[in-house]
Specification:
The complex is a heterodimer of chains A (about 180) and B (about 350). By secondary structure, chain A is mostly helical. Helix content of chain A is about 45%, strand content about 10%. In chain A, α6 packs antiparallel against α7. Chain A starts with 12 loop residues before the first strand and ends with a helix. Chain B is α+β, with helices and mostly antiparallel strands and about 350 residues long. Helix content of chain B is about 45%, strand content about 15%. Chain B has helices at about 5, 45-60, 80-85, 135-150, 180-185, 190-200, 230-260, 260-275, 285-300, 305-315, 320-325, 330-345; strands spanning about 25-35, 70-75, 105, 110-115, 120-130, 155, 160, 175-180, 200-205, 220-225. In chain B, β6 and β7 form a beta hairpin. The chains are: A mainly alpha (about 180), B alpha+beta (about 350).
C-alpha cells in the first residue's frame, strides 16, 4: 500500500480521522505522517492535546482569550495554548477562568489536598493579619480628650491623660528606632 | 572531571536489593517546584534563570541531606558527561539540551538529585532500588520540607504547587516504578496490561522516560494525576497497581516454567552464550540478551551469576559509560568492540 498523500512511499502509519461523524482512514508514509502531525499540533495547540481536549469544534481561542496577557510574565493565553507551558505562577491567576476547567479535565479535580511548603507554616498571610489600632491615632484621640479636660478644669483626669500620651509617644519612638 | 568518580561505582538504585527486586528495578519519586515571582525556565531571561540556579545551589548547600553533593552547572559539562548523567538516570534528555543556566545537584550515592531550570525551576528526585515507593517518598518529603524553608515556592491553597505544565499542578509529584516484564512480553499479554494501566489513569514509558521506546522488556509505570489527592493517596494507588502487575508477571513466569521450560532454557542459554563469546555487539542486542539472562537468574536457570552484575551491565554498556571506561571518545564501531570486551570480562 502506498502513501495517500505523496503516493510514492510505502504507507507505514495508519490514521483514523473523524470529521463531522464521518470516519476516514489515512495511510501515510513516515515523512508525510510527520508533516501531518505537525499540522495537527498547530491546529489544536499542544496544551489541548496534552489534556485530551481536542473536542471537535470546541475550545478555540475566543474573543475573551484574545489579548489576555499575564501582567507579570507577559505570556498570552494563546502562547500557552501553542506551547503547553505557562509563563509563571501568576498565570494561574490571570488565566484562572480557563485553567480551572482544564485542570479538572486533566486531574478530575481542581482542589489541592497534598502538602504545603514549610515557608507558610507559622507565617500568617498578610490578608489574615488583623491590623493593630495605630498608635498615632490613639494619641490623637487622647490629645483632644486632654484639651477637653483642661477646658473643664478637670486637672486630675488631664494629668492621667498626659501620662498616657507620654507613655505611648515613648513606645512609638522605640518602635521607629 | 569530577564525574569520573561516579563511573567507578554502581548507583544505589542498581544494587538489585529491596522488595521484589527480581521484577522491580527501581522506585522513583520526583517533585516539581518553582520559585515565586520568577518566570518558569522556558520564559525566564538569562539573568533570572542564573539567579534561580544560584539560589537553589545556595539553599541546597544549607540542607543537611545535601551536604555531600556535587553541584554542577550543565554549561560546564561536555557532551560525554551529559550523556553519562542521562544514562545513570540523574538528568533527563531535556536537561542536557540548551544548557544555559541549567544545573544539577546530586548526592554521592546517586539517591537524591535536583535538576535546576529544566521544565520547572526545581525537579527533585529520589530513586531507590526495588519496590519501595514509600521509602522514596519519606526521603524526598523531608528534603522538600527543608528546601521549602529556605526557598519561596510558588504555591496556592487551592491549586497547590504551581508548575509550568498543568499536568503537574497540585502535588507536583510523579512516582515511577521501573519493571522488568519479560514473561508478560513472551506470553504476549503485555499490551493488554499496558492498556489497562493507561485506562486507570497511569502512564507507561520506556527505559529512559518520556517519549522513549521500551527496550529489553523494561517498562516504567507512573501516575498521571497530581491534583485532588494527597501524595500518600497517589502513591498508595500506584502501589496497588504495581502489585497487580507484579502478580501477573509472576503468573506468566510460572506458566512458562511449567509449559515451556525447554524453550526458556534454550533462549536463556543461547543469550548467555552470545554475550560470553561475542567480539562485536550493539547496545540494542546486548539489552535484549541481558533481559533473557536476567530472567534466567530470577528463575534459577542460571545459578552462578549475580543479579547486581547483570543490572550493572545494562548501564555500563551504554555509549557514554563505555567511553568513560575507555578514557577516550569512541566511534560506533569501536564502541561495539569495547562493549563486547567488557561483557566478556564481567561474565567470565
Amino acid at each position: 500500500m502506498f502513501c495517500d498523500i505523496c503516493g510514492k512511499d510505502k504507507a507505514t502509519v495508519h490514521l483514523t480521522e473523524i470529521v463531522d461523524d464521518q470516519m476516514t482512514e489515512l495511510h501515510l508514509c513516515e515523512g508525510c505522517a510527520k508533516k501531518k502531525s505537525i499540522e495537527m499540533e498547530q491546529q489544536f495547540g499542544l496544551a489541548d492535546l496534552l489534556a485530551g481536549l481536542t473536542e471537535l469544534g470546541g475550545q478555540k481561542a475566543d474573543k475573551d482569550t484574545l489579548g489576555l496577557k499575564c501582567p507579570v510574565c507577559h505570556i498570552s493565553y494563546d502562547d500557552f495554548r501553542k506551547v503547553g507551558r505557562l509563563g509563571c505562577s501568576h498565570c494561574y491567576d490571570t488565566f484562572r477562568k480557563y485553567l480551572v476547567p482544564l485542570l479538572k479535565k486533566i486531574h478530575g479535580s481542581s482542589q489541592h489536598l497534598g502538602k504545603a511548603p514549610k515557608m507558610l507554616y507559622g507565617v500568617v498571610k498578610p490578608s489574615k493579619i488583623i491590623r493593630e489600632p495605630r498608635r498615632e491615632s490613639e494619641i490623637g484621640v487622647l490629645k483632644s480628650q486632654l484639651q477637653e479636660a483642661i477646658k473643664k478644669e478637670n486637672f486630675e483626669d488631664a494629668a492621667k491623660i498626659r501620662d498616657r500620651i507620654r507613655e505611648l509617644e515613648k513606645k512609638n519612638g522605640e518602635g521607629k528606632k | 572531571m569530577i564525574l569520573d568518580n561516579l563511573v567507578k561505582h554502581t548507583s544505589e538504585w542498581l544494587k538489585g536489593t529491596g522488595p521484589n527486586s527480581d521484577i522491580v528495578i527501581s522506585s522513583r519519586i520526583r517533585l516539581a517546584r518553582n520559585l515565586e515571582n520568577i518566570p518558569f525556565p522556558q520564559w525566564a531571561d538569562k539573568k533570572q534563570a542564573q539567579g534561580v540556579l544560584e539560589e537553589v545551589f545556595k539553599a541546597s548547600s544549607r540542607v543537611d541531606f545535601l551536604k555531600n553533593t556535587l553541584m554542577l552547572k550543565m554549561a560546564d559539562l561536555n557532551n560525554l558527561d551529559k550523556q553519562f548523567l542521562i544514562e545513570r538516570h540523574l538528568i533527563s534528555r531535556e536537561q542536557a539540551m540548551k544548557v544555559d543556566s541549567k544545573g544539577i545537584v546530586v548526592d554521592q550515592e546517586e539517591i537524591i538529585s535536583i535538576m535546576i531550570n529544566e521544565e520547572d525551576h526545581l525537579r527533585t528526585q529520589v530513586i531507590r532500588s526495588g519496590f519501595d515507593l514509600f521509602e522514596a517518598w519519606n526521603i524526598i518529603n523531608q528534603i522538600d520540607d527543608l528546601l521549602s524553608s529556605k526557598l519561596n515556592f510558588a504555591y496556592s491553597d487551592e491549586l497547590g504547587y504551581l508548575t509550568a505544565c498543568p499536568t503537574n499542578t497540585g502535588t507536583g509529584m510523579r512516582g515511577s516504578v521501573m519493571l522488568h516484564l519479560p514473561a508478560l512480553v513472551i506470553t504476549m499479554q503485555i499490551n493488554k496490561i499496558l492498556s489497562a494501566v493507561s485506562k486507570l489513569g497511569f502512564t507507561t514509558r520506556g527505559l529512559y522516560g518520556e517519549g522513549t521506546q521500551a527496550q529489553g522488556n523494561f517498562f516504567q509505570i507512573s501516575n498521571q494525576v497530581s491534583l485532588g489527592q494527597n501524595e500518600e493517596g497517589i502513591i498508595d494507588k500506584l502501589n496497588g497497581l504495581i502489585r497487580q502487575v507484579i502478580e501477573q508477571e509472576e503468573q506468566a513466569r510460572k506458566l512458562l516454567i511449567n509449559q515451556k521450560k525447554a524453550f526458556l532454557e534454550d533462549r536463556i542459554g543461547r543469550s548467555l552464550g552470545i554475550l560470553k563469546s561475542a567480539y562485536i555487539i550493539t547496545s540494542q542486542e546486548t539489552t535484549e540478551l541481558l533481559s533473557w539472562v536476567r530472567l534466567g537468574c530470577d528463575l534459577g536457570i542460571i545459578s552462578n551469576l549475580d543479579r547486581v552484575k547483570i543490572n550493572e551491565l545494562f548501564i555500563l554498556i551504554q555509549p557514554a559509560h563505555l567511553q568513560k571506561l575507555e578514557g577516550r571518545i569512541l566511534d560506533h564501531g569501536q564502541r561495539d568492540v569495547k562493549r563486547a570486551s567488557i561483557i566478556r570480562e564481567k561474565l567470565k
